[in-house]
Amino acid sequence: MVKLTMIARVTDGLPLAEGLDDGRDLKDAEFYKQQVKALFKNLSRGHNEASRMSIETGPYVFQYPSLYIFDNVMIVLWLLVRSSLIFSYIIEGRVCYLTMCDRAYPKKLAFQYLEELRNEFERVNGSQIETAARPYAFIKFDTFIQKTKKLYQDTHTQRNISKLNDELYEVHQIMTRNVQEVLGVGEQLDQVSQMSSRLSSESRMYADKARDLNRQALIRKWAPVAIVFGVVFVLFWLKNKLW
């Protein structure tokens, strides 16, 4: 399944377009986007000049917090999850088209998906690529990305089976490398720092949520008592008023 799509100018790493998502398809989307931006930065420096490449995102282990409340005590469990995603990119006309998919997703489909994006992006925006001055200048291209992404999601459709059987499009010679090799130690340390900051931020968020849950628990506990006292008071007042 296609999880993430980004397009950038190779000469300076400027992001040009992105397949927007609502966050449900991909946990820790921002972390992966930081990896992609680091890759674009490397490409702008002339590193990793292969025009087509697959990059494994592992073997990173991510920790996802789960919050539990027991007897008004907050318990946070950090679950270990091993990454099973892979980046694929092509570079044409000094533009990098990149997507991230499940490891089991056919490499052939991933690169054909990128080729479709490249053809349309060059047709619609080709004359403006060099002059784009701000990030995501072609954000409207998201509409085409989403439409094309839907066509490639299900690998068992007749359309995609035909593409997989297309002998004229081969990907056996495309190099596969690990993200540690591609990004280098410096970028990895930056990402570890970013991950630590994110985890601290999430811990604060869960602490706030725990306080809210405690407040709600107190309300549920004492609200019935308050209602009973209120009803008794009203009845007592009415009795005195009538008599």
Automatic annotation (TrEMBL):
PROSITE patterns named among the record's database cross-references: LONGIN, V_SNARE
Keyword Protein biosynthesis: no
Cellular component annotations (GO), alphabetically ordered: endoplasmic reticulum membrane; Golgi membrane
Residues in Longin domain copies: 6-145
InterPro entries noted in UniProt: Longin-like_dom_sf, Longin_dom, Sec22, V_SNARE_CC
GO molecular function: SNAP receptor activity
Entry's localization field: Endoplasmic reticulum membrane; Golgi apparatus membrane
Any Gene Ontology biological process: retrograde vesicle-mediated transport, Golgi to endoplasmic reticulum
Membrane topology category: Single-pass type IV membrane protein
Top-rank lineage group of the source organism: Eukaryota
Transmembrane segments: 61-81, 218-238
Pfam families: Longin, Synaptobrevin
Keywords for the protein's UniProt record, in alphabetical order: Coiled coil, Endoplasmic reticulum, Golgi apparatus, Membrane, Protein transport, Transmembrane, Transmembrane helix, Transport
V-SNARE coiled-coil homology domain mapped to chain residues: 160-220
Family: Belongs to the synaptobrevin family.
Protein name: 25.3 kDa vesicle transport protein
Lineage per the UniProt record: Eukaryota, Viridiplantae, Streptophyta, Embryophyta, Tracheophyta
